[in-house]
């Protein structure tokens, strides 16, 4: 079985991909692969490393758009490398693989996403609107790289924090439409959080006919 997990940051992609890895899946973590490519940019003058989120910053910061584009370029490279690896391993169809994508994988382009659909079952870890505030609070309190792709704007007399809070629902619903468009299977937020829902249950849902 070959799976790609998609969904918002905080939806559980890394959690489930690690669980699958514990059950013998070969795991490709896009976050780690992008961070490796960004290593020269993340190295501070004292030799320590900054986090990718610190490097990218928030969408109201002057350097943000340039770094957002750079991040997306590396993300496109990473997914292409994963797909090339999968295509070269077609003679080993029995190997179980999980691709832990980023929340912004939906922006890498139709052609590459089409290849991802051909070579893996795309599993969308849906997050309902009622958890928006929770995801937004996590983004602000413990930042992670977030590609806004033009969804952020600031009104006159609006603080940066107020603008983020106003624009986040726009980003959330724009992404939701794209996740649903590319998903082969959707696993409901409340279903996968039920007590006792484990890897076996996850795989049963993921293996439903497309």
List keywords for this structure.
210 residues; alpha/beta; Rossmann fold; five-stranded parallel sheet; 10 helices; 51% helix
Outline the structure in words.
By secondary structure, this protein is α/β, with parallel strands linked by helices. It has one domain (2-206): Rossmann fold (3-Layer(aba) Sandwich). The chain is built from ten helices and five strands; from the N terminus they run βαβααααβαβααβαα.
Short synopsis of the structure:
By secondary structure, the protein is α/β, with parallel strands linked by helices. Helices cover 51% and strands 10% of the residues. It has one domain: Rossmann fold (3-Layer(aba) Sandwich), CATH 3.40.50.
Describe the protein's topology.
Blueprint: E1 2-6, H1 13-22, E2 26-29, H2 30-37, H3 39-42, H4 52-56, H5 64-88, E3 97-100, H6 110-119, E4 121-125, H7 132-141, H8 160-182, E5 185-187, H9 189-192, H10 199-206
Parallel strand pairs: 1-3, 1-4, 2-3, 4-5
Helix pairs in contact: 2-5, 5-6
């Amino acid at each position: 079985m070959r799976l790609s997990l998609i969904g918002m940051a905080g939806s559980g992609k890394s959690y489930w991909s690690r669980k699958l890895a514990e059950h013998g899946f070969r795991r490709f973590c896009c976050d780690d692969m992008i961070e490796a490519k960004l290593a020269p940019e993340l190295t501070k003058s004292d030799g320590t490393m900054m986090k990718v989120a610190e490097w990218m910053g928030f969408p109201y910061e002057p350097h943000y758009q340039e770094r957002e584009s750079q991040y997306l370029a590396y993300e496109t490279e990473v997914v292409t490398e994963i797909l090339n690896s999968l295509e070269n391993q077609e003679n080993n169809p029995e190997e179980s693989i999980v691709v832990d994508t980023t929340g912004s994988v939906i922006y890498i382009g139709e052609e590459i996403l089409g290849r991802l659909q051909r070579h893996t079952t795309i599993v969308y870890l849906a997050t309902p609107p009622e958890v928006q505030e929770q995801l937004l609070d996590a983004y602000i309190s413990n930042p992670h790289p977030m590609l806004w792709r033009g969804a952020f704007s600031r009104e006159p007399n609006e603080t940066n924090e107020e603008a983020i809070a106003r624009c986040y629902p726009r980003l959330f619903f724009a992404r939701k439409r794209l996740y649903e468009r590319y998903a082969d299977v959707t696993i409901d937020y409340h279903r996968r959080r039920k007590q006792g829902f484990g890897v076996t249950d996850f795989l049963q849902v993921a293996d439903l006919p497309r």
